[in-house]
Design a protein that fits this description.
alpha+beta; Beta-Lactamase; 4-stranded antiparallel beta sheet; globular
Amino acid sequence: MRNSLALIAAGLVLTGGPALAQTAAPAPTPAPAPSYSSRVVTLAEAKTVVAAAEAEARKNGWTMVIVILESNGQQVFAEKMDGTQYGSNEVALKKAHTSANFRRPTSYFQDAVKAGTLNSIFTGATAVEGGELLLVDGKIVGSIGVSGGSGAQDGQVARAGAAALK
C-alpha cells in the first residue's frame, strides 16, 4: 500500500512538473494608443470609408456589414450588403465600439487572447479582427466595424475602409 502511494505521488510530481514550469510569455508592451480628436468623423467621411470598404469586399466576392461610429461611440453610418448574414449587424457594431472605446484595433485583443491573456474579453472587448480606428492627423475621429466573412477578411475590408480616410 505504501509503495502504491509512493508511486502515485511520484507520478503526480513527474507529470505535474512540466505543466507547472510552463508559463505564458509576457505580453509585449502595447504601443501608446492614439488620442481622441476634438472632432468626430463626418457623414461625408463615413460614406467615403464605407465606399472603400465595400469596394474591397466586392473585389473579393464577400458580403459584409460595415458600421462607422464617431469616436464617442455614436453611429454615423451603416451598410448591410445584400446577402450578408443577419448576425453580422451586431458583430460589426461591437467591433466598431471596441475600437472606439479602447482606442485600438480589435486585432489587438484577438492577438492577446491567442497569447493566453483573457482579460480583454472580460472587459467587454470584441476580440475578433475587423474593428479599426479612423484617424485624421494621427487622432481618433471614429471607428469602423466590419463583419460577414472570416476575421481576416473582415480585417482586410476594415483596413481598406480606414485607409480611405488618410
